[in-house]
Write a structure and sequence with these properties.
By secondary structure, this protein is an alpha+beta fold. It has helices spanning about 45-50, 75-85, and strands at about 1-10, 15-30, 60-65.
Length: about 80
């Protein structure tokens, strides 16, 4: 199972804050298939990079298999990434 709760990805510049992802909620149970679609842009790729542990959200909770991965060190993230494949 993969669970995303209130996932946000924010980029701050000198004068502006840009929300790329805002309050994303997603549950994917074992054996389910998921398609992520949307208008052309980078939001789908950003979400997939977060799910694949290639990027970290600015805030929220990510629980693959019920275990939080957001506080993991880089080595543990790589190990978890490989187990998701």
């Amino acid at each position: 199972m993969i669970r995303l709760t209130n996932i946000n990805k924010i980029y701050d510049s000198k004068f502006q804050r840009t929300y790329v992802l805002k309050d994303i909620m997603l549950d994917v149970n074992e054996g389910e298939f998921l398609s992520i679609m949307g208008p052309s842009g980078f939001r789908e790729l950003t979400l997939m990079n977060i799910i694949g542990l290639m990027d970290a959200p600015s805030s929220g909770k990510y629980l693959p298999d019920g275990n939080s991965v957001l506080d993991l060190k880089e080595k543990a993230r790589v190990d978890n990434h490989l187990s998701l494949i």
